[in-house]
Design goal:
Radius of gyration of chain A: 26 Å
Helix content of chain B: 40-55%
CATH superfamily of the largest domain in chain A: Nitrogenase molybdenum iron protein domain
CATH architecture of the largest domain in chain A: 3-Layer(aba) Sandwich
Largest sheet of chain A: 5 strands, parallel
CATH topology of the largest domain in chain B: Rossmann fold
Number of helices of chain A: 22
Shape of chain A: globular
Shape of chain B: globular
Distance between the termini of chain B: 53 Å
Largest interface: A-B, 56 and 63 residues
Oligomer: heterodimer
């Protein structure tokens, strides 16, 4: 039993729903009690979908348990096929139905429905949403795709995008265009946008582009083995990764087409002098493994941040993320316990968080700016505008998104100059955030916190001096000073201690 | 006391045939009630004993992470807990001890059963007794089921309140108990009205914290503020209390009728009743009149959601000039919904339960001006050109009693107003 307040991932059948909802012409018959239909609103509300997810829930009740839940399943299955006339169905059980062991797959296969029936075994008490999506997509490919003659022109499939994915909609477009410019056509994009008959044609592509290892890796491996299709290992998030991805495509296809890289503005934006203020900002990165690995590289190599901490919530990616962490001289935090992530951030006191919507709330509470880089998604993660994460435009979007929560460079200098000005002072926060500037929690109530935690007393002059330091570095200054005082065995912090600590930690 | 009221229709819906269908239900389970109950009962923690799905439902229905650390959580069952029930009990004890150590402010703990805990027959009643003994007197541990195999959406609150009734102390005092979770501001308005009518003492279930003194016994009379409290109604009657049947306090008419039923029970004079209610009634009528123009002569179709549908259909038809085409409710209890059904003019299809696909077919055929439905259906129906009102907002927003009557009308009017404002028509 594990006490959980907030979860990063839903149950595995929600992963299966993400696959089914991304596809067309596929229906999911889910053996589930009433209430599990809540999952529909993830798609209709968060993603603003204008259609119900193609899911039929059997809706069994307590009184059915002693009698014929299997009959209920078969009736729901037949009704769904008659009403929605899908090309194929996937069938499975939610957590409760798994316990009553009706074997939806076996039942549906004997019904003579006249369409492919794909049975899902998703262990609800062991695995989670990403596994559910990955396994479902793999089973669909395994059942429907057959070896085929390759297309005459060089084509590839895009594997991994699903409904309710973090910017999958726009990543598909960006990468499709990029490949087109390289002279490679997309054969099938799946699961998102594909029909079962499209899946049947997966085998005719020359290779696969694995966009999201979380939701497409099993299928990519299967295709490699059975259809002789290599798959790409670089996820093109960030300028450097996009260049590596292009090199990988060139190696796979022999393409030598020249690319127009003018629209990659991120590299110049990052070199322009205003970006100097980004140098060495300490960031904590947390999310799904794929986005975290990409974010670490962008943070260090493309924006000049210092990666202060890194972790992921999906254990399937633990090994990868640990390896990445090692490159950065860090220990990875692999956990799906939101409270543990919060404690880590609190201890690290980064200047910025690159995380999920969960970390955004942690950041709000701690007064640390946060940019969202990964699922779990929120309605905010489905903007009306084109907003990919991948490719050149993705690199531009990421630059803007990450910079937005920070005080801008010129503004930071002005704050240093005019911090006592009655209108333009650090309490006012970044000018483009209106009244929503992050509130420095370290300030409330300062003396008590210092006392309680470290047994160090801030003298009132030092306290006043600390308040003159802009809010976005004040938390760090307080922490550094207290650490310094503790190391020196000081019981009190004076103005001198403050500046000695500043000199000590200068970089 | 009813001479100021609109006369009831010559034929109401109480005897109308009820359409009962069985199929996919597009509704929440009872766990959802935790989202408002944990704000209402300020010293309580709700521990769902369930699966990852339960945790995911709670955070999805609440909107991800509204509160930094909420007073609810899920003890997620894992493979090892399914192997043996004894071990599951030991695990539960460990989890509760961990939780109570971290949250010393908690005085009441509700163990909330879920679909998986019901199916594996994890006896939470036994667990609650054991844990109450262990943590008494500091923490009281109760249990109820919010599982989807047993409860629909608001029935979770019903199950929660019903679980509190057996542990209420006995009393022989002549008391009014008002039952149903209301936002504090609305509850205070209600208590103010009852106090002005000279009714005293009044207790409220659920109380805001465990220290509130309240009892129940043969001289207790109780009024319900929410139409989904069937089990609580039965539990209170088992303790000897008597129900004051009345329409529910939505809108000016509903509030007046609800207060009038209580006033009659307590022998409040007609003069006093008029004096106390005159000003708020006038305010409510005025507020409704300011909001209800877009609703007049429009049709409304209710998908089943919270059991609020029948009283709200009564409000919309009698106070806002709408015509109800279909009024679906997850469950209909004559003892609770009868007075509202009497006032709802005959005509609409009354439906209990749901086969969502068949109901969608009826809704598309009826083309109502306004469809009241859950979040899973709202955007798809909007995309088909129907205007919708999210039913869940009716549960989360203060809508009861006089001062909220205008807000209630506005909630329904807003989608129609919006549609008329937006210049870009759907293609």
């Amino acid at each position: 039993m594990k006490l959980t307040v907030w979860t990063y991932e839903g149950p595995p059948h929600v992963g299966a729903m993400r696959v089914a909802t991304g596809m067309k012409g596929l229906h999911y018959v889910l053996h589930a009690p009433q209430g599990d239909t809540y999952a529909d609103l993830l798609f209709t509300m968060i993603e603003r979908r204008d259609h119900r997810p193609p899911v039929t829930y059997t809706t069994f009740q307590a009184r059915d348990l002693g009698s014929d839940t299997a009959g209920l399943f078969k009736a729901a299955c037949q009704d769904a096929v008659d009403r929605f006339q899908p090309e194929a169905i996937i069938v499975g059980a939610s957590c409760t139905a798994e316990l009553i062991q009706d074997d939806p797959g076996g039942l549906a296969e004997t019904m003579g429905l006249g369409i492919p029936v794909i049975a899902l075994e998703l262990p609800s008490y062991q695995r989670k949403e990403n596994f559910g999506a990955d396994e479902t997509f793999f089973q669909i490919v395994r059942h429907l795709a057959k070896p085929m003659e390759k297309t005459t022109r060089i084509t590839c499939n895009l594997l991994g995008p699903t409904a309710l994915g973090f910017r999958h909609r726009d990543d598909i477009q960006e990468i499709t265009n990029l490949l087109y410019e390289l002279g490679v056509e997309v054969n099938v994009t799946a699961p998102m946008t594909a029909t079962p008959s499209d899946i049947a044609k997966v085998g005719q592509a020359h290779f696969n582009v694995l966009l999201y290892p979380e939701t497409g890796e099993q299928a990519a491996r299967y295709c490699e083995k059975h259809f002789d299709q290599p798959y790409t290992k670089t996820v093109p998030i960030g300028a450097g990764a996009t260049h590596d991805f292009i090199a990988e495509i060139r190696a796979l296809t022999g393409s030598t087409t020249k690319l127009d890289t003018d629209r990659l503005r991120q590299t110049w934006w990052s070199r322009s002098v205003d970006s100097t203020y980004l140098t060495g900002k300490r960031v904590f990165i947390f999310g799904d493994g794929t986005h975290v690995k990409a974010a670490a590289r962008i943070a260090r190599d493309e924006l000049g941040f210092e990666v202060a901490g890194i972790g992921c919530y999906n254990r399937e990616m633990a090994r990868d993320v640990r390896a990445t962490a090692k490159e950065y001289g860090l220990e990875a935090l692999i956990t799906d316990d939101y409270l543990e992530v919060e404690r880590t951030i609190e201890a690290l006191q980064p200047e910025m968080i690159l995380g999920t919507q969960m970390e955004r709330h942690i950041g709000k509470r701690l007064g640390i700016p946060c940019a969202v880089i990964s699922a779990p998604v929120h309605v905010q993660d489905f903007p009306a505008r084109y907003s990919p994460q991948m490719g050149f435009e993705g690199a531009n979007v990421i630059f803007d998104t990450w910079i937005h929560p920070l005080v801008m460079g010129l503004e930071e200098h002005l704050l240093h100059m005019f911090r006592d000005d009655f209108e333009f002072n650090d309490e006012a926060g970044a000018s483009h955030h209106g009244g929503h500037a992050p509130k420095p929690v370290a300030d409330t109530p300062p003396a008590v916190i210092a006392d309680a935690q470290d047994n160090v007393i801030w003298l009132s002059d030092a306290e006043k001096e600390l308040r003159k330091i802009p809010f976005f570095v004040r938390g760090k200054a307080r922490r550094n000073t207290e650490t310094y005082a503790a190391e020196k065995g000081l019981g009190e912090i004076s103005i001198d201690t403050l500046y000695e600590a500043k000199a000590h930690y200068a970089r | 006391m009813s001479d100021l009221m609109t006369p009831p229709p010559s034929l109401g819906c109480r005897t109308s045939p009820v359409l009962k269908q069985r199929g996919q239900r597009e509704v929440f389970c009872g766990l959802t009630g935790i989202i408002w109950l944990h704000r209402k009962i300020q010293d309580a923690f709700f521990l769902v004993v369930g699966s990852r799905t339960c945790a995911h439902l709670l955070q999805s229905a609440a909107g991800v992470m509204i509160f930094a650390e909420p007073r609810f959580g899920t003890a997620i069952l894992e493979e090892s807990d399914l192997a043996g029930l004894n071990d599951a009990h030991a695990e539960l004890d460990r989890t509760v001890a961990e939780l109570l150590a971290r949250r010393p402010d908690i005085r009441q703990l509700f163990l909330v059963g879920s679909c998986p805990s019901e199916v594996i027959k994890l006896d939470l009643n036994r667990a609650a007794e054991r844990l109450t003994q262990e943590f008494a007197p500091k923490v009281r541990v109760l249990e109820y089921s919010g599982s989807g195999i047993e409860t629909t959406f608001t029935q979770g609150e019903d199950a929660c309140l019903a679980s509190m009734v057996p542990v209420l102390p006995s009393t022989d005092a002549r008391e009014l108990m008002v039952v149903g979770a209301l936002p504090d501001v609305v509850e205070d308005q209600m208590l103010g009205l009852l106090s002005d009518l000279g009714i005293d003492p009044v207790t409220v279930l659920p109380a805001r914290n465990i220290a509130s003194e309240m009892g129940v016994g043969p001289n207790t009379v109780f009024a319900l503020t929410q139409p989904f409290l069937g089990d609580t109604h039965a539990a209170l009657e088992r303790r000897g209390a008597r129900h004051i049947a009345a329409p529910f306090p939505f809108g000016e008419e509903g509030t007046t009728a609800w207060l009038a039923a209580i006033a009659t029970e307590f022998g409040v004079s007609k003069d006093l009743f008029e004096r106390v209610t005159e000003a708020p009634r006038a305010r409510a009528r005025k507020a409704i009149a300011q909001a209800n123009a877009p609703l007049n002569d429009k049709s409304v179709f209710f998908f089943p959601d919270s059991q609020l549908e029948i009283p709200l259909a009564r409000f919309l038809t009698r106070e806002c000039g709408m015509t109800a085409l279909e009024v679906g409710s997850p469950y209909i209890h004559d003892a609770l919904h009868g007075p509202d059904l009497d006032l709802l003019p005959a005509g609409p299809q009354i439906a209990e339960g749901q086969d969502v696909d068949l109901q969608l077919d009826r809704c598309r055929a009826a083309r109502p001006d306004l469809t009241v439905c859950g979040l899973g259906l709202a955007n798809p129906l909007e995309a088909e050109g129907l205007s919708t009102k999210w039913a869940i907002e009716l549960v989360f927003t203060p809508v009861h009693f006089y001062e909220q009557a205008g807000d209630l009308a506005s909630l329904f009017a807003r989608p129609l107003r919006r549609k008329s404002i937006l210049g870009v028509a759907a293609e």
